[in-house]
Amino acid sequence: MNYERRYAWSVLLRLYHWAFALSIVVLVATGLYIAHPWTTTYLEGSAGGFPMANIRYVHFVAGFIFTSAVMVRLFLLIFGNRQERFWNFTPITIKNIKNLFSTMFFYMYLTDKHEHRLGHNVLAGCFYIITLFLAIFQIISGFYLLYPQSTFWQKWGFAIFGTQQEARFCHHMFMWYFILFALIHIYIVVWNDIKSPEGLISSIFNGHKFLPKASSKIK
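The structure assignment produced for this chain is given below.
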């Protein structure tokens, strides 16, 4: 089968992807330390420096990068190129609903048919929307915990999560979703790259995918 190279992802989306991914790695690593530090409090302010304060600082910086990445993706959901907009990969049309089920059957080895898409398949799109939704809650809970003196964040944080301790619990639990999402995402992307030679992995670096020439009308 002959393939042709097609432009799929804008530079802004690729920057979002790597900022989002790398910030999650840093946030998880530092978040686990903050929740269960393996150093003792005797080190704080002593010759050992300020390990908890430094880890918290790195966590906060990564949190701001995470927030910026989410804001960029929300912008691209509406103003990105055709395959980056939310209506291209959400089950809101008959065509997309069919793609959702056909993709599920393909992943479960119930069919060999695979619809080549320049953008995301709808199953992936649904999980991306859920992930963005949870990312917003993670951001709100994070700023609620970071700024206890802020009337704005305390008002919204308390309305959504309750007390700061309850928000801290939700913040920690959401973290496990992002860990599982990252692991499943990597597995599915590698599996897809093996099953269908579309250059899915390389596309997030160079922005291009490969589609069958018969699919040249795919948007």
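Interim note for the steering committee: The beta strands are 3-7, 208-212. The first strand starts at residue 3 and ends at 7.
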